Amino acid sequence: MANTEQFRTCPATGLKVHLPAERLIKANAVAAVLFLAIGGLFGLGVALTRWPAVHLLPADWFYLALTAHGLDVLVVWIIFFEVALLYFASAILLNSRLATPKMAWAAFALMLVGAAVTNVAVLQGTSSVMFTSYAPMQATPMYYAGIVLFAVGALIACFIFFGTLVVAKQERTYEGSIPLVTFGAMTAAIIAVFTIASGAIILIPTLLWSLGLVSHIDSLMYRTVFWAFGHSSQQINVAAHVSVWYAVGALVLGAKPLSEKVSRGAFLLYILFLQLASAHHLLVDPGISSEWKVFNTSYAIYLAVLGSMIHGMSVPGAMEAAQRRHGYTNGLFEWLRKAPWGNPAFSGMFLSVIFFGFLGGISGVVMGTEQINLIIHNTLYVPGHFHGTVVAGTTLAFMAITYLVVPLIFRKDLVLKGWARLQPYLFGIGAAGISLFMMGAGTLGVSRRHWDITFSDAPLPFDYPGAAFLMMGLNGIFAILASIGGIMFIVVIVGSILFGKPAGEQTFKELLFTGEASAVGKHGSEEHPKVPGTLALVAVFFVSFVLYYFVNWKYLSEIWPLR
Amino acid sequence: MALTPPDQALWWKRPLSRAELGWITIAFLWGLFMFFFMIYWHGAGKQNLSNEAYRISAEKFTARTQAMVDKYKVRDYETKQGVKIPVVHPPAGEDVYLIGRLWQWWPILELEKDQSYRLHISSLDWLHGFSLQPVNINIEIHPGYEIVLTVTPDTSGEFTIVCNEYCGIGHHTMLGKIFVVEQ
Ligand code: HEM
Ligand SMILES: [Cu+2]
Ligand SMILES: [Cu+2]
């Protein structure tokens, strides 16, 4: 049973904080940031190599660095951070104790050991197979074993989350329904269970195969099951970072959802339809019928995309409504102009919303169209797209909330506040640039995962168009910008945790909304607050989406006829 | 707040605002449109990836490709390093074979503009990516499966096949050629 000595009361939010949960959140967040630093440096190395004028690394190191980059940022950084979020959204937001902190530490240890083992395997140079490790290309058994350990740890963390929901319900630590952010985290956790199960189904036989115990892994079967794991895990990220958007909006602006029903319904659409999307990766593979591709790539009839488009309105809408309640009612956009742009939690979150929607979201739907994928598959457009989703979107959102985790959970004031203020802009614009210029190079045909686009060692001559070289140069410049932003983030966060003054009244005032939040929120406003600015933003988004969609059909119609 | 339980105990009974309802309707209809547009393109569009594919062993595919080379080879192409690669010019409408293997697309094809060919592609070892440049057609090539597409080159000139699926340390040297000539 919960023992009161294990709790403290948060001076900023009034929440009851379970100390063992708090320690676990700290540990997972620190591990996450550590791997972001490592993986980010590999990313810089990769980007500088792909800049033809610099061409930093030799070929073997390039492929090694690219493998390590994908694993450390996409898998390790993001999932450690998500585990921290799951514990936060369950134990802390529900005023509850965390179910089985001991198991949670075991999960943490498994994940850490797994990540280390896989990293060592990659650094030995014999497992440069990219994070997708497509059979029949083979890594060393250690490589797969590390990922399996990591995944088992993450799975345990999900079950601890569910266990905590049960504990909180039984011990009546909250009234009514769970908060929206917890609901979003639950969405992420449900998808995670499915995802990790698929991961086990594909990686365990592959591990046995690399040990020589299984003779053959079919490449098409591998890609199909791998992406049931790989794509769904991206939907964990979406559910998690949308929850973070709502959480940051609530903490820095006192925003409340326009409609609980709509926001929760949109999360539900994720649970129901996201799994289908592994088809995105198989659109130009042989032996799969068009009927299957069309149905699955569109998540039935774009019902999960619908979920994201709904969040795309309800997240900014909630913030606009809050700002208008606080008196910023002039014109369409006073609410946005007068938003706390100097607060890195807000600026990071808002840039994340915009970049995720405009860069990652639109490009994702376009390239996931069955026929259009023919002009995009495996070009640099693909990494361009997912640096829009998972870097400018997820990573930036996670950075934003970290600026609140430091005062609330680590209970430290930020150091280097000037850096903190600037950081989301540098990283966000850098990441958006990487995303755009890789998409640009991809549109011109440039291959992803490719060491030398001048083909100097190739037996046959070939040149990509000059514009592609320009794109790669610009990509390099924005990669440097993003890396500076990334380094600033690490310095500010690690510096604050180690050397920050204890967080006090003043810290909370700078970062959090401290007005009469819920009183106004509950009854002071009309039934449906007006959000004209958000509607204008959504209209711009929709028009861009439609135009870009048809531009790509036009490109497709210009290639050789195929049947 | 999004961080606290909903204010209204019966939150699921609250009606939607017109703005929300409007946006959900538009987004839903757009999804339907995009769904049906893919199906429409199968009928009306000229660029659809074929669904024809077979399981095939590396030996069998090599034998068929070799037979085509023996029959229709017109000359050799000499690389920078002095290696000779056969150039084949099969008649229009013919079955044409292309091998992807570490780290080469083989042989070199010479096709006629505005003629259709049944192009068979397979890999003999790992995954490879058929990326035809500068046209920009990209297809995943698996070992053990041959994909068969009917292609009609409608531009002439020299085209390069880049491998765009990572296939090991020589991946960035894996190129092939297709020449399209006027009839
Ligand atoms: C400083 C920041 C970053 C830079 C400069 C950067 C740059 C790059 C570049 C240039 C590529 C190579 C594309 C290719 O050659 O195919 C790449 C791949 C990739 N990046 Fe990043 N990136 C950054 C941060 C991130 C983050 C934060 C994530 C994930 C959360 C991420 C996920 C990936 C993944 C999954 C790949 C694909 C690896 C593969 O193809 O196997 N990157 N990145
Ligand atoms: Cu290849
Ligand atoms: Cu390759």
- In terms of quaternary structure, what is this? heterodimer
The backbone outline of chain B, from C-alpha atoms, is: elongated
Kindly report the spatial arrangement of strands forming the biggest sheet of chain A: 1-2
Q: State the helix count of chain B.
A: 2
Mean of the pLDDT scores of chain B? Answer: 94
Explain how this protein is built:
The complex is a heterodimer of chains A (563) and B (183). Chain A has 563 residues and is an all-alpha fold. In chain A, 70% of the residues lie in helices and 1% in strands. A two-stranded antiparallel ribbon of chain A has the order 1-2. Chain A is globular. The N and C termini of chain A lie far apart (66 Å). The relative contact order of chain A is 0.10. Mean pLDDT of chain A is 93; it is low at 517-526. Chain B has helices at residues 18-44, 58-72, and strands spanning 53-55, 73-78, 84-88, 95-101, 104-106, 108-112, 117-123, 128-133, 137-141, 145-151, 157-163, 175-181. The model of chain B has no long low-confidence stretch (mean pLDDT 94). In chain B, the strands form two sheets. A seven-stranded mixed sheet of chain B has the order 2-3-6-12-11-8-9. In chain B, strands 1-10-7-4-5 form a five-stranded mixed sheet, covered by helices on one side. Chain B is of the alpha+beta class and 183 residues long. Chain B has two domains: 6-44; 51-181, Immunoglobulin-like, CATH 2.60.40. Chain B starts with 17 loop residues before the first helix and ends with a strand. The interface between A and B is large, with 112 and 90 residues. Bound molecules: protoporphyrin IX containing FE and copper (II) ion (2 copies). One copper (II) ion binds at residues 128, 163, 165-167, 171, 174 of chain B.
